[in-house]
Amino acid sequence: MCSAAFPARAEDLTALSFDQLLSVEIVTASKFAQKLSEAPSAVSVVTAEDIETFGYRTLADILRGVRGVQVSYDRNYSYMGTRGSGRSGAYNSRVLLLVDGQRLNDSVYGQGSIGTEFPIDVDLIERVEYVPGPGSAIYGSNAFFGVLNIITKKPRALAGAAVGVELGSYRTGKAALTLGKRFDNGGEGLLRITGSASSGIDRYFPEFDDAASNHGVASGLDADRYQRLFAKYAFEGLTLTALFGDRVKGVPTASFGQQFNDPRSLTVDRYLSVSAAFQHAVSKTLDLHANLNFNRYQYQGDSAYTPLASGLNRDTSHSGVVSGELRFLSRAFDDHKLIYGIEAFNARTRRLSNRNVDPYELVLDEDHPKRGHAFYVQDEIRLGDRLILNAGLRHDVDAEGGHANSPRIGLIYELTPDVTTKLLYGTAFRSPNAFERYYITDATGFKSGPALRPEHIKTYEVVAEYFPRQDFRASASAFVYRLDSLISQTADPADQRLYFTNLDAASARGLELEAESLGRDGSRLKLSTAFQVARDSATGERLANSPARLAKLNYSRPFGTGAGRLGLEAQYTSRRPTILGGAVGGFTVLNLTLSGIRPTPRIALSASIYNLLDKQYADPPNDEHYDNSSPPRLLQSIRQDGRVFRMELSYRF
Per DSSP, what are the bridge partners of residue 146? Predict the structure, then answer.
């Protein structure tokens, strides 16, 4: 993290009682503001204060601290797993990623980027709202296991000019410039420019340990560098936002049958997004919201298959989508809060291309534009003082996926003044994306599979939230879901070539528990745990990369005489099966952060130690993690970082 501005904390959420925290409104669950206790889901919220206190550097770091969520890293991309489903080949396409309510998932892979490829600095995040469970009744495709909404700060929160620098392990450096201004007409603007580079370290892979493969050491291939730009302007009900992100990442794992330890192996991810949102109170009982968005995503992957220049293969994709939404929130009827709207999109470009570089040979060039639209309606009905019925339905239409109806219903009942219960049912779908449908090429080992169908999920959930006093809260959530026609990347054992297919079904059940308390000394303690079992319905085997248990602890307290705070975080993940029939062991990681150190009013310092005890642990590989040997050597696990340091300094003009 590289904080480039640090205005006085107008609302320190660590100092609020839980009664006050419950009154903080969230917007993601129903597309309108509502209390946490009234949302039709067990919503998790991570605030800007949490991000600073625990030294989170990426969106992936933030998610590692969220109840029931796991994150895996294959030294190229980070993958979010939730409620027992964590296989990495889907590129996070089963979670809908929003920025200020606008879709960021691209139209080729459906990817929800959460690592360094995510194009927004975490310092710009006001809060993260994670709504687990099916969300297609409001959001359509990709809102399969949940919806993740990144709400950025208002320009006034970063007024003035500031610079920030960060240094860390693995020769990591980062610099940021932030400019915020309030104009005479009442409008306010924000501009942030960021650059970062990390050399990484040499990575050892025992599966590739022979003399011809540098004894299993990938030298200088874990480098990571990116540039970002974010701009925002708000005036009355209009908000204009633009973002750009460009990341280049070395790939040390020799994936997709590459030659191991070849410096040409890398990926490039480039995001460009421009959006306009407008809100207006048409009358005392009717609110209007409209938005128009343009999202562009470009990918490049260079793969080295032989030591010769002719062995370099370049994979590219390009997606460009124009989308819009018009919705109304009506309170015209007593005890009803009715939201209804229409969405439309035009994926004008969904291009997949593959070529051999020298000599030039075009292997694949496919472009499949797609259009679609949807109608949705949801009603929040108050049936007395203690009971809320939340019911919604959405109808989606697109040329490839056909028609899809997604209902959702929730009963929210105040059992006692201290206990709220929620009974929830929902469905969701995910249409096969362009990559899954059309990527067929011998060069990178993909072949045609059976015709793909949309995948579906049905979820039943019971939630209980307990708030006996202002300094303590607890919650429990029990869920059951069934997946049908699950789309998975699979390797043919005969030749290791990859293809996508619909598995018959999978199912899961689980229990998530969380408790949080506030101390009179300003300390805060949060504990959560998750127990889950996810299995393939045909074989009865546990799903790959699916831990049976997760546990998390977050503790913070003030230190010193100023605004300083100490944050300690512990994360436990149990043993996880791999796609090869083995398993990676369970582990516990401790992180320690000191933040808010301000030797002068204009200077702020913070420091973190991640993996404090230098725990050796690994994440499971995926189907594509094999080299070009004959027979191919498959990775059994992917080792993660040991102890890592970070220091940050910010100066405000």
Answer: 95, 132
Looking at 359-471, which runs of residues are DSSP E strands? Answer: 361-367, 370-382, 387-398, 402-416, 419-430, 455-469
- Tell me which DSSP letter residue 574 carries: -
pLDDT average, residue stretch 256-272: 95
Asked if 105 and 145 touch (Cβ cutoff 8 Å), the reply is: no
Torsion angle of alpha carbons 625, 145, 402, 535, nearest 10°?
A: 60
Whether the CB-CB separation of 346 and 368 falls below 8 Å is answered with: no
Distance CA 99, CA 112 (A): 11
pLDDT score at 487:
87
- Whole-angstrom CA distances from 531 to 80, 480, 509 are 17, 12, 8
**Across 415-440, average pLDDT:** 94
Q: Which two tokens stand for residue 324?
A: 């819009």
Which is it for strands 34-35 and 25-26: parallel, antiparallel or unpaired?
A: antiparallel
What's the CA gap between 137 and 132, in Å, rounded?
13
Rounded Cα–Cα distance for residues 6 and 160 (Å): 10
pTM above 0.85, yes or no: yes
C-alpha span between 648 and 405 (Å, rounded): 49
Q: 411: which 2 tokens?
A: 């009963």
Distance CA 357, CA 512 (A): 50
Confidence of residue 19 (pLDDT cuts 50, 70, 90): low
Give 495's contacts (C-beta < 8 A, 6+ positions apart).
none
Q: Give me the count of residues in the chain.
A: 653
Q: What is the pLDDT of residue 495?
A: 75
pLDDT, mean of residues 620-639: 92
Among 17-21, 266-270, 301-305, the range with the most confident prediction by mean pLDDT is: 266-270
Distance separating alpha carbons of residues 377 and 340, to the nearest angstrom:
4
Residue pair 119/106 in contact (Cβ under 8 Å)? The answer is no
Q: Model confidence at 42, in pLDDT bands (50, 70, 90)? A: very high
Residue 7: both structure tokens together? 């205005």
By mean pLDDT, which of 387-391, 462-466, 491-495 is the weakest? Answer: 491-495
Under 8 Å between Cβ of 567 and 588:
no
- Give yes or no for a contact between 585 and 575, defined as CB atoms under 8 angstroms apart: yes
**What is the token pair recorded at 128?**
């993260």
Instruction: Give the CATH superfamily of 13-652.
Output: TonB-dependent receptor, beta-barrel domain (2.40.170.20)
Residue 136 zone, left/alpha/beta (φ > 0; ψ -120 to 50; rest): alpha
Residue type, 291: N
Q: Are strands 172-182 and 188-198 parallel, antiparallel or unpaired?
A: antiparallel
